[in-house]
From TrEMBL:
Name this protein carries in UniProt: ABC transporter permease subunit
Segments traversing the membrane: 20-40, 60-84, 111-132, 152-173, 180-201, 248-269
Organism: Gilvirhabdus luticola
Protein origin, superkingdom: Bacteria
Keywords associated with the record: Membrane, Transmembrane, Transmembrane helix
Amino acid sequence: MLRLINLELQKLLENRASKVLIFISFILPFTVLVLSSIKINFFGFFTLELGELGIFNFPIIWHITTFFAAQFKFFFAIVVVSMIGNEYSNKTIKQNLIDGLSKKEFILSKFYTIVFFSLVATLLIGFASLVIGMYYSSYTEASIVITGTEYLLAYFIKLIGFFSLCLFFGMLIKRSAFALAFLFILFIVEWIVFGLITWQFNSDIAEKIQNFFPLKSMHKLIDQPFQRVIMSKFPDKAELAYDYAVHWYEITIVLGWTALFVFLSYRLLKNRDL
C-alpha cells in the first residue's frame, strides 16, 4: 500500500497544478480559523464577534467545522480527475502497466491516495476544531470535548465517497473537464428523479428514496448546522427541531457507493483496450 501511495505522490508532486490544488484544498478549510475571529461592526452601534456567539463551543463546533470544510472538497476533486486524465493524455497508464503494475494495483494506487489525502484533511480539520474550541468554548471537560467527534468520521467517509465518485467519472470519461461536468449532470439527474418520484407518490417517500442517491447520501452525512445553532439559542422553539445526528446507516450507504465506484473503475480499466 505504501509503495502505491508513494508512486502516486511522486506523480502529483511533479505536477505544478496538482501541487497548487492540493495546497488550496488543505489550506481553505483553515479559513474557519479566520471566521472564528471575525468582528462585524454595525455602524458603530455594536460589534458582533462570531466566536463570542457560542457557535464554537464544544460539542457543536465539530458539526460546524466539518460542514464548512466539506464545501471545499471540489478542489481536490479536480486533482482526482486530473490524476486519471493525465494518465491517459501522457500515456503513463500504459507505461505503468508495461513496467509491471497490474490494473488492480493501478486503481488501488488511486484509491489509497484518496484515502491518504482524506485522512490528512480530517486530521487537519480535527486539529483546527480542537484549537478553536479550546479557545472559545465554555465547556472544556474531556467528556464534552469528545462528544460530537463522530462528525470527523462522517467527514472522512464523505471525502472518500465523493473522491471515489470522481475517480469513477475520471475512468469513464478520461477527460478532466468532462468528468467534472458529469458531477453537475448527476446532481441535476438526482433532483429530476426526486421530482418524478414526488409527482408519482409523495414528498416523504421521495425524500427517503433520494437519501440513497450518491450525491444526496454523501450530503446527508453532515446536515446543515445553522438550524441547530438557532435551536441552541431558542430551545423553546420545538418547530425548529430536526435530526442532525450522524447515523450508522448513512455511513453504510456511502461506503456501499464507494465500494461500487472503485469496483466499476477497476472493471472499466480491466475491459478497456489500452
